[in-house]
Amino acid sequence: MSANATTILILRHPETEANVAGRFVGRGDSPFTPRGERQLDLLTERIVEFAPDRLWTSPLPRAATLAEHAGSRLGIGPVADERLIELAFGHAEGLTWDEITERGLTFDYRAYETPVAPGGESRASIERRSAAIAEEIVELGGRHAVCTHGGVFRAMLVALLGLSRSDIWAFHIRNAAVAEVRVVEGHGMLEEFGQARTIE
């Protein structure tokens, strides 16, 4: 990794209807709730305040909408990267825990080398791609904002902070979560970790 300092602001997309309903939405999408719309404004302001040199995003609308809002304010065109997309849940896509159980689907969210559900993606896969784009961003140096999803958010933190694989479960990544990580000479430091909060 580069000796140049790199500061990365990672953001999880605002709250969606699927999030509230407890549905596993990976490669699909879901509209924002009213609370999510308010979080969209708060997260946009946070990115503008951060003033990134580059703005990265998952191509999925729930993340890309945030990047587009911030990019229009900053005059920066967001870079959509498939590596920032959420974990693929396969046959469990769009289902709740109860529906998964009712259908008798195998679902192991903590499985590593095997898919979390039939037809889905493994955690090893999402961790590898998240680490790869994190390393690429660090090599560039400068300031970067990344609009993504809970699974990638966790995996990027573990990669950037040099934590062990099991530490991915140490972070509760809520909707509208924000983390700022500064990397100097390959050493990552967590400068900020929290959530864009709204008045209910």
Description:
The structure is a single chain. The protein is an alpha/beta fold. The chain has a single domain, classed as Phosphoglycerate mutase-like (Rossmann fold), CATH 3.40.50. The protein is 36% helix and 18% strand. The protein has six helices and six strands, in the order E-H-H-E-H-E-H-H-E-H-E-E. The chain has helices spanning 17-21, 34-50, 61-74, 97-102, 123-140, 150-161, and strands at residues 6-12, 54-57, 79-80, 142-148, 177-184, 187-195. It has a six-stranded mixed β-sheet, with helices on both faces. It is globular.
Helical coverage, percent range: 25-40%
Measured between the Cα atoms of the first and last residue, the distance is: 43 Å
**How many beta-strand segments?**
6
What portion of the residues fall into strands of 2 or more residues? 15-25%
Runs in which pLDDT lies below 50 for 5 or more consecutive residues are none
SSE arrangement, N to C: EHHEHEHHEHEE
CATH superfamily: Phosphoglycerate mutase-like
Number of discrete helical segments? 6
Arrangement of strands in the largest sheet? 3-2-4-1-5-6
Topology of this protein?
Elements (H helix, E strand, L loop, with lengths): L5 E7 L4 H5 L12 H17 L3 E4 L3 H14 L4 E2 L16 H6 L20 H18 L1 E7 L1 H12 L15 E8 L2 E9 L5
Provide keyphrases for this structure.
single chain, alpha/beta, Rossmann fold, six-stranded mixed beta sheet, 6 helices, globular
